[in-house]
Design brief:
alpha+beta; 4 helices; about 45% helix; globular
């Protein structure tokens, strides 16, 4: 686990266990691994680390982080928004 965490220049969530029954959840960033009480708290912490240290989202998950940024945290910036994020947020807004 330490080798994986040491290589990461961006925060990410690391879980142990099996799908549906996680035994441990962590957030890792540049060799620092922090245990979290739940998956939700780990996602929250990883997002806040991105924001606090102004770390760009990794491209493979950028749309997911952007959805959380604009939908859950209501932080809007000047970066281009993925069409799928805009559509999903519009859909959710119409249903509320």
């Amino acid at each position: 686990m330490e080798d994986v965490a040491r290589a990461a220049a961006h925060p990410f969530v690391l879980c142990t266990g099996v799908r549906g029954d996680l035994s441990q959840v962590f957030v890792a960033l540049e060799g620092q691994v922090t245990a979290c009480p739940s998956l939700l708290s780990a996602i929250d912490r990883a997002f806040k680390l991105h924001y606090l240290f102004n770390i760009a989202y990794v491209s493979a998950a950028e749309h997911v982080w952007q959805l959380l940024q604009k939908g859950a945290y209501v932080i809007h910036d000047k970066t281009a928004t993925y069409a799928c994020v805009t559509e999903l947020l519009s859909f959710v807004k119409r249903k509320m």
